[in-house]
Amino acid sequence: MRVVLAGLATSHPYTDARTLTRHAELVVWEQDPERLRRFTEEHPAAKVAGSLGDALAARPDGVVLTVPNPQVPEALARVLESGVPCFVNKPAAASRDQLEALDRLAIHERVLSSSVLRFAPAFAGVRIDPGEVLAVRATVRHDVGLWAGGYNAWQDTPGQGGGTMVTMGVHGVELLVALLGPDVRLVGAAGAKRHYQGLRSEDTGVMALRWGSGVTGTVEILGVTEDESYVVTVHGRDGSRTIAIESGDDPLVGLGYEGTIEAFLAMVRDGAPSPVPWAETRAILDVLVTAREVT
């Protein structure tokens, strides 16, 4: 099996490769020489492609796409032409223009884009009765201090990578939509800089959501934190249920990285459809983009 890692724009494909290398031959393409050097030092057996076209010419069985958000629509269009399964590292869009560009693509059923947390063992098996739910809340704790020093400035730029509201907020929205479905809209959002004044976006944020059923939801984003964790609370008439996702002894397992790659490999090996329908991903992206617009 051959898998192309098309782009190394964030930390995620480096993590993905640690699982993929146990299953497939890796081909890597990346525009930044330093990022590519870091990757090939860890994975010297990976074959390096000089361009995305060269990578796709290697006839891969699947593609993991991780390029800066403004480049996703064009790069994904080229991958779609190849017909192979594709995993687009989150978030697939961070602005209205980017989302509308994705809407113009013929995205097939073997395209997956998701927060890895959906596949975390602590969350993946959770089932709820939406009819019994009064409200839900997701709390995302993930430090963004690295951006304050200028690292990956495109991610922290609202019109490009979406900033903290989008890039970290996706985790909370993803988990709530996984539980309650895609019939959801944003009803309010706010962000602030409480600590990292050098950011281009915010280091704290909140979103208010409402599902068509009438259930309300809240996503809290805490980008100033010593510990990384994600908590979902489901409120019902007879009490509240809490689901906590933490890295544990093995972050690749605990945070869902391995589960995500296993879902991708099922698409590659078995021809399975994406476990997250694109319509659901589209609903999540619309909430995030709208939150970015109003803040």
Automatic annotation (TrEMBL):
Q: Cross-referenced Pfam families, in alphabetical order? A: GFO_IDH_MocA_C3
Q: Keyword Oxidoreductase, does the record have it?
A: yes
PANTHER family given in the database record: BCDNA.GH03377
Entry protein name: Gfo/Idh/MocA family protein
At the top level of its lineage, which domain of life is listed?
Bacteria
State the UniProt keywords alphabetically.
Oxidoreductase
Note the InterPro entries from the entry: Gfo/Idh/MocA_oxidrdct_glycsds, GFO_IDH_MocA-like_dom, NAD(P)-bd_dom_sf
Q: Top-down, what is the taxonomic lineage of the species of origin?
A: Bacteria, Bacillati, Actinomycetota, Actinomycetes, Streptosporangiales
Domain GFO/IDH/MocA-like oxidoreductase positions: 131-240
